[in-house]
Design goal:
By secondary structure, this protein is α/β, with parallel strands linked by helices. It has one domain: 3-Layer(aba) Sandwich (Mannitol-specific EII, Chain A), CATH 3.40.930.10. The chain is built from six helices and six strands, in the order H-E-H-H-E-E-E-E-E-H-H-H.
Length: 150
């Protein structure tokens, strides 16, 4: 999906991030997006944490897609993290999560938001894609897998 390529530069991909909780993951992603996308780390954290309070964004099979709405009319921003160790995400299958795709969408981008979530849910439903993401050590290949160019 071309849209994934536009919102997920290689600088927004972290492989084997050492985090021990959902909270710490959101803090680290906030730092990454502050550095590489110019977003305020506190806004990223609050946006993701607030959405998670409404219900888990864990999909199952070790995957989560935390997402939220940012203020203003900025761009859609994404990040992908593979955690070093699986973390609890209150997923429906009660399995911990290692593959995390973070999506931050401005309030005015509802259509894109749903299109991206649909694409990601489809990609992550494929065991071969999840396995490849778990075993890949190259951010370019991870990006291509998420864009469906494998």
């Amino acid at each position: 999906m071309e849209l994934i390529g536009k919102i997920l530069p290689e600088a927004h991909i972290a492989l084997d991030m050492a985090v021990s909780s959902k909270k710490r993951l959101f803090e680290q992603v906030g730092e990454m997006l502050e550095t590489h996308a110019g977003l305020a780390r506190a806004e990223v954290f609050e946006c993701l944490f607030a959405r998670e309070k409404l219900g888990t964004t864990g999909l199952g099979h070790g995957v989560a897609i935390p997402h939220g709405r940012t203020t203003g009319e900025g761009q859609v921003v994404a990040a992908f993290v593979r955690t070093q160790e699986p973390i609890d995400f209150d997923a429906p299958d009660n399995q911990p999560v290692s593959l995390v795709f973070v999506l931050l969408v401005p309030e005015n981008a509802m259509g894109e938001h749903l299109e991206i979530l649909s694409h990601l849910a489809e990609r992550f439903s494929e065991k071969s894609v999840r396995d490849a993401l778990m075993n890949c050590n190259d951010v370019q290949t991870v990006r291509q897998l998420l864009m469906n160019q494998n």
